[in-house]
Amino acid sequence: APGAGAGGATGGADEEARLRERLAQETKRMEDAEALKAKGNECLTAKRYDEAAALYTQAIEAWPTNAVYFSNRAAAYTHMQRYDDAIADCRKSLQLKPDFSKAYSRLGTAHFQAGRYRQAIDEGYRRALELEPANAQYTQALEMAEAKLAEEE
């Protein structure tokens, strides 16, 4: 019986070492993705939208379940007037994180910039405000979209 116990412990130690190694690799991958996002954010602020989008794409490849990366790339795409790509990224972001108000706001902005004011209101800004009712930026965006829609009607 003591021999069996020792063998089992060694197997457990090997498994634990493998798990630790996997966790270390996973942590590194996420840290790399976060570094790419940070560089993307710098490019977005500097209005280098192509570069920002490329960095967010690399972050997404490293960590494909991170809703923030899709939302950030959507912001870059909106600035590049790639509205359908921005909308697709917002929707992907919201699949991953259904309560992500910023993704709803960015969805609204992409629709707004594309001249689709009704969708901006219904799919974007109203949903963002349901999640964050006190957000003045979302309120202002909703009011602008409603004014544009009223001009059209």
Word description of this protein:
By secondary structure, the protein is an all-alpha fold. The chain has a single domain (11-152), classed as Serine Threonine Protein Phosphatase 5, Tetratricopeptide repeat. Helices cover 85% and strands 0% of the residues. Keywords: Repeat, TPR repeat. It holds the Pfam family TPR_1. TPR repeats lie at residues 33-66, 67-100.
Task: Kindly summarize this structure in a few lines.
The protein is built from seven helices and no strands.
CATH architecture: Alpha Horseshoe
Q: How many helices in DSSP terms?
A: 7
CATH homology superfamily: Tetratricopeptide repeat domain
> Main beta sheet, described?
none
- Radius of gyration from the alpha-carbon trace, in angstroms: 22 Å
**Topology-level CATH name:** Serine Threonine Protein Phosphatase 5, Tetratricopeptide repeat
GO molecular function, one term: molecular adaptor activity
GO biological process, one term: post-translational protein targeting to endoplasmic reticulum membrane
GO cellular component, one term: TRC complex
Pfam family, one: TPR_1
Secondary structure topology:
Elements: H1 2-45, H2 49-62, H3 67-79, H4 83-96, H5 101-113, H6 117-131, H7 136-152
Helix pairs in contact: 1-2, 1-3, 2-3, 3-4, 3-5, 4-5, 5-6, 5-7, 6-7
Keywords: Repeat, TPR repeat
InterPro entries: SGT (IPR047150), TPR-like_helical_dom_sf (IPR011990), TPR_rpt (IPR019734)
TPR repeats: 33-66, 67-100
List keywords for this structure.
153 residues; mainly alpha; Serine Threonine Protein Phosphatase 5, Tetratricopeptide repeat; elongated; disordered N terminus
